[in-house]
Amino acid sequence: MEQFLLEIKNRMSQKLPGFEAQFLMASANRKSNILPPENAKQSGVLLLLFLKEKRWNLLLIQRTEDGNAHSGQISFPGGKMEKYDKDFTDTALRECEEEIGIAREHIHVMGHLTPLYIPASNFVVNPTVGFIDYDKIKISISQKEVKEVLIVPLEYLFDEQHKQLRLVKTNYQMEVKARAYILQQNQVVWGATAMILSEFEQIIQGLKFFLK
Fold first, then answer.
1. Distance (Å) of CA 145 to CA 72, 81, 96, 100, 156
2. Across the strands, what pairs with 188?
3. Cβ atoms within 10 A of the Cβ of 66, count?
4. Residue ranges with strand state E in 41-102
5. Helices assigned H by DSSP within 43-153
6. What would the pLDDT profile of 168-212 be if each residue is shown by its tens digit?
7. Chunked in runs of 10, what are the mean pLDDT values of the chain (212 residues)?
8. For residue 212, is it within any domain?
9. Which pLDDT score, from 0 to 100, does residue 6 have?
10. What is the pLDDT of residue 196?
11. For 179, which of 36, 156, 189, 202 is 20 to 30 Å away at the CA?
12. Which pLDDT score, from 0 to 100, does residue 171 have?
């Protein structure tokens, strides 16, 4: 395993930055670390890393416009935990395969980030971090769930000039001010996805996102 991945794995095995790091990219309407109610549903998402042209990248998806709470938003592959899933990592790997066709046997699980409760959908999101060899990525999109697969270089994503405060439209509020990561096509990553990315950004601070 590359030194970059070994260092991330080591850092995730220690105390995580937690909600304090997540909150750096929270929307204006997110006031605090809200504890999930007893009826909260569990979900698993996957932060999938890979090396392409000597640059470390992250795979994201844009969801289809289906009228649900996170319709059309950019997110990680993932979804609701089902009774037959062994754990939330199993959920994340299953959903990744169902949504974009990447076989779970090619994904190396490295660790986990801090769970995050989303009041709008009453879900606790449990993030898993994984790695895949680029030549193993075979995309087959589920048109019902995914509009587009996005390949995002980490050095671009976490560049300070690409973090902005945006006014975004939601399905449950007219508009909300949100701290966001801005992608190369001016696509906006905000909400829970941005908060999870914020913790991951803190974990990998100081690491080089490219190979010489």
1. 10, 16, 11, 9, 26
2. 182
3. 12
4. 41-52, 55-63, 74-75, 78-80
5. 88-100
6. 877 665 788 899 999 988 899 999 999 999 999 999 999 988 875
7. 90 97 92 88 98 96 73 90 97 98 97 94 96 96 94 96 89 79 93 97 93 64
8. no
9. 95
10. 98
11. 36
12. 65
Residue 121 has what pLDDT? 87
Q: What is the pTM of this model?
A: 0.94
H or E element at residue 202: helix 191-203
| The two structure tokens encoding residue 156 | 């671009």
Do the domain assignments include residue 211?
no
* CA distance linking residue 48 with residue 104, whole number of Å: 11
Domain membership flag for residue 209: no
The tokens describing 4, both together, are 């970059």
**Cβ neighbours, 10 Å, residue 106:** 15
Residue 210 domain-assigned (yes or no): no
Split into its structural domains, the chain has a count of 1
Task: Give CA torsion, residues 184, 188, 193, 198, to 10 deg.
Answer: 70
- Contact of 159 with 182, CB cutoff 8 Å: no
CB count in 10 Å sphere of residue 194: 23
Q: Look at phi and psi of residue 157 and say left if phi exceeds 0, alpha if psi is from -120 to 50, else beta.
A: alpha
Give me the sign of the Cα torsion angle 142, 48, 18, 198.
Answer: negative
Q: Which domain holds residue 42?
A: 3-203
Looking at residue 172, its pLDDT comes to 61
**CATH number for the domain harbouring residue 176:** 3.90.79.10
